[in-house]
């Protein structure tokens, strides 16, 4: 008999995350462009992030036809959260009078680069980056590079910078509960052997 699923967070009803998902407001508008390969991912942190933010949207696809219209909204200054040689630290660009439209690609690094390639309007945007010394809370997967965060961590960190002194830690509660649940499911001994302190 299939397990009943929560229609909102898509988790089994016995592990529903909805009570942990906040409803946070922000000046910054967040648009997550998710590669289709991420939709079925067990954690799907991009979805959790946009569910917890009032001024956020998740779009799934590879080519986004109406992107130019979204990016040209005069009420927002569009920036792409993605590393690059010409990227500026987010803290240095957060003083503009207009709120930011923060575009966040969601996928592996290779898939995220593909999104940029398939959507030239993204490649033309000013790029912003997070501080390089950040540590991911995702204890079940070794980061592909120093400072790499999950999508929900990157969004929460970006909003902490852009909207200081407001804090967005509450956005991470369902993410941390998911990780704890996976650790419990695998057993503490297996976690310690395979993941704890394995840097």
Secondary-structure topology with pairs:
Elements: E1 29-34, H1 45-51, E2 56-60, H2 67-71, E3 77-81, E4 88-89, E5 100-106, H3 109-118, H4 120-123, E6 127-129, H5 151-162, H6 173-186, H7 188-194
Helix pairs in contact: 1-5
Give structural notes.
This protein is of the alpha/beta class and about 200 residues long. The protein has a single domain, classed as 3-Layer(aba) Sandwich (Alpha/beta knot), CATH 3.40.1280. It is built from 7 helices and 6 strands; from the N terminus they run E-H-E-H-E-E-E-H-H-E-H-H-H. It has a 6-stranded parallel beta sheet. Helix 1 links the parallel strand 1 and strand 2. Helix 1 packs parallel to helix 5. It is globular and about 45 Å long. The termini are far apart. The relative contact order is 0.18. The mean pLDDT is about 85.
């Amino acid at each position: 008999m299939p397990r009943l699923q929560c229609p909102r967070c898509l988790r089994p009803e016995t592990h529903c995350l909805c009570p942990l998902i906040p409803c946070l407001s922000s000046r910054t508008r967040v648009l997550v462009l998710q590669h289709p390969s991420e939709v079925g991912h067990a954690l799907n942190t991009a979805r959790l992030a946009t569910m917890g933010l009032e001024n956020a949207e998740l779009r799934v696809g590879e080519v986004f036809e109406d992107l130019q219209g979204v990016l040209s909204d005069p009420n927002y200054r569009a920036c792409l959260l993605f590393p690059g040689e010409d990227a500026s630290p987010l803290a240095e660009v957060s003083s503009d009078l207009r709120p930011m439209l923060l575009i966040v690609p969601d996928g592996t690094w290779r898939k995220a680069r593909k999104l940029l390639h398939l959507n030239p309007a993204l490649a033309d945007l000013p790029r912003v980056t997070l501080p390089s010394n950040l540590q991911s809370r995702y204890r079940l997967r070794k980061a592909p590079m120093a400072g790499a965060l999950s999508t929900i961590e990157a969004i929460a960190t970006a909003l902490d910078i852009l909207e200081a002194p407001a804090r967005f830690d509450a956005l991470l509660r369902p993410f941390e509960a998911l990780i704890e649940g996976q650790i419990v499911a695998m057993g503490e001994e297996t976690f310690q052997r395979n993941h704890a302190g394995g840097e």
